[in-house]
Amino acid sequence: MSENHLLSPNSAPHSDVEDIKRQSDYLRGSLTETLEDRISGSIPEDDNRLMKFHGSYMQDDRDLRNERNKQKLEPAYQFMVRVRAAGGVVTPEQWLMMDNIAQQFANGTIRLTTRQSFQLHGVIKWNMKQVIQEVNEALLSTLAACGDVNRNVMCNPNPYESEVHQEVYEWAKILSNHLDPRTRAYHEIWLDEEKVVDSRDGVEQEPIYGPVYLPRKFKIGIAVPPSNDVDVFSQDLGFIAIHEEGRLLGFNIAVGGGMGMTHGDPKTYPQVARVIGFVTPEQLLDVAEKTVMIQRDYGDRAVRKHARFKYTIDDRGIEWFVHELEQRLGWELEPVRSYHFEHNGDRYGWVKGSDDNWHFTLFIQNGRVKDEGNYLLQSGLREIAKVHTGDFRLTPNQNLLIGNVTSEKKPEIEQLIQAYGLTDGASYSALRRNSMACVSLPTCGLAMAEAERYLPTLLDDIELILDEAGLRDEEIVIRMTGCPNGCARPALAELSFIGKAVGKYNMYLGGGFSGNRLNKLYRENIGEAEILNELRPILNRYAKEREEGEHFGDFAIRAGYVKEVRSGLDFHE
Ligand code: SRM
Ligand code: SF4
């Protein structure tokens, strides 16, 4: 077994981030001093690297960047804070706390993410400690929301729709706790816990991660067929629940998915996870732990672009991985069990659970919770949270489920939904209901083009084409990101747009409707007029020539617009 993660920094090729992690004393660095410094609203780069593990990124408002530059002012530094809860499940009290912090310390809005977390934007350095303390007082956390560790564990947000959902959610929580970093740095820096001098060696302090953590971020999601809302094939490690007559039998394991790539660098590519075997629920933790440790030991620590688990697997082969995993487990995986996914989107409106409680899935455009014009979404949700006795569930598609509403409470919640005009998306096109866009500008430092702020208006225009073609109610999955990092999982959409430069996008076609197949580049670097000109004939032809039940992504391949992509290794061919 390679002991890559334990080698001294000089004995193996490694990126500068590896040095920062190793020298940080388990993620402490000089964060305490940096936060106390009142002279600058920014933090040094080394601390910024560590800050990610604590759930925050330093950013600046890019809308203001040029103007401030002209005035010779430093950028308007601010922080993004990511708050996670396994499976995205929070109580009404926690919702109210997030709402309150957003108004008091951030830009006023709440952003629901593609991994069922919350993001706040625009928090200034002086307020960071109070924000993180309040988050923790509400029993939520920002620890490991970002950084080279396991991220928020995703799972289907309908636990009460069936007993299986509930069981799977319990496993998601256990898995999430098991893979949390053990360092006390977070508690010392943010929660004023006293530093305990610890003579134990590093492996004991972080028994799973070791002193340099993982080479890169690591993501886990659990899907409950027939819904693939968590996009299980995009995860580093995915679990597919196998259930029979309401009983959870276990999970198929999928490994090596990921969405990120770099424009113009064919060595980087999105990849779909491969299904390698079946395990019982009791074996889940062992498999997850050993998989994380394999990536810890074999992942590339020299080139961060090449450090995700998908490359570790693709470079060495899936057979190598299964062998290594079984060696470490000391037992063999069972053969893959059959499963079937129908879609990767959300099902909106009211659903009655098997325990007779009700759940309402709201459509939230690109996850942004705010009051805008007459649409008082944030206020409406606040009023609902004040009386709601169930919970809220953030969905993997940036929407929100008002969960576990009793039959007695339902009229009151329904009345508030009506009073605030909160929408289940029924009045929108099915395309819009199946849309996602990443945050992008103005906060994301890596954005090359707009996404969240632009997709809604592009959809207005595409809807005109859909109306002409009679496709308004046709479910088509569309996603947009401001850069090829793929935060809205665009490579798994039937139609997607990835930013190249301001106003310019690459257009992709041919993804699978249930998130089971990557799409392929169709047109490069095109602006709005070209996008609409390209799409019009394709959508019209789809309306006329599609076969019974044929999805748009499948049609795009059958009609010859793009070639089918079976593996990320063929993505650029
Ligand atoms: Fe992401 C980096 C936002 C889900 C792949 N992502 C970022 C940063 C932190 C930008 C940065 O590094 O400076 C973005 C912050 C923008 C902002 O202003 O808020 C950002 N990512 C998001 C969110 C908020 C998008 C959204 O609109 O919801 C999602 C937060 C998820 C969460 O709650 O944890 C988000 N990011 C994803 C996903 C989707 C997923 O995980 O299901 C992916 C693709 C899956 C994957 O990881 O392969 C994703 N984000 C990336 C990458 C590319 C990683 C790679 O393999 O190369 C980066 C860049 C990086 O890590 O260097 C990135
Ligand atoms: Fe930023 Fe790119 Fe992620 Fe969008 S896809 S949030 S632009 S890193």
From TrEMBL:
Binds 1 siroheme per subunit. Binds 1 [4Fe-4S] cluster per subunit. Residues 171-332 form the Nitrite/sulphite reductase 4Fe-4S domain. [4Fe-4S] cluster binds at residues 438, 444, 483, 487. It holds the Pfam family NIR_SIR_ferr. InterPro entries: CysI, NiRdtase/SiRdtase_haem-b_fer, Nit/Sulf_reduc_fer-like_dom_sf, NO2/SO3_Rdtase_4Fe4S_dom, NO2/SO3_Rdtase_4Fe4S_prot, NO2/SO3_Rdtase_4Fe4S_sf, NO2/SO3_Rdtase_FeS/sirohaem_BS. Siroheme binds at residue 487. One of its GO terms (cellular component) is sulfite reductase complex (NADPH). It is an enzyme of class 1 (oxidoreductase). Residues 1-13 have a biased composition (Polar residues). Signal peptide: none annotated. NCBIfam families: CysI, PRK13504.1. Alpha(8)-beta(8). The alpha component is a flavoprotein, the beta component is a hemoprotein. Belongs to the nitrite and sulfite reductase 4Fe-4S domain family. This is Sulfite reductase [NADPH] hemoprotein beta-component. It comes from Brevibacillus fortis.
